[in-house]
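Annotated sample (chain length 92).
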Amino acid sequence: MKILKSYTNVNDELNELESITIHQQSQFISNAKNKYVTFWKHKLDNSSKLSFYSTFKSEYKLEDYLTTIRNASQRKAVTKFRISCHKLQIEY
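Output written by the structure step:
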């Protein structure tokens, strides 16, 4: 419950998950996403390895290829290439 309280502005005592309102759930999800996006941008701005990547990706969003490529193995191959999880000797 401490984690939930840290992501919401709830001052009330939360003892059970069932007592959390829809508004509090939405607030938790929104705050968690905002904190992650802030973390993501910080890593993007402060990593030498990600400096080239940041020229192409400056906004945190779902990439089009994830919904365009229907074949799962092809989508996985493109993803591995994009995140440098491959055996190609192309990094400097």
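Annotation: The helical segments are 2-6, 22-45, 65-68, 72-82.
Annotation: Residues 1-85 form one domain.
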